[in-house]
Amino acid sequence: LMEQPTRRATRTSISGAIDMGARLLRESGVTALRQVIDISGDGPNNQGRSVVEARDEAVAQGITINGLPIMLKQPGHLD
Question: Are residues 52 and 18 in contact, defined by beta-carbon separation less than 8 angstroms?
Answer without folding.
Answer: no
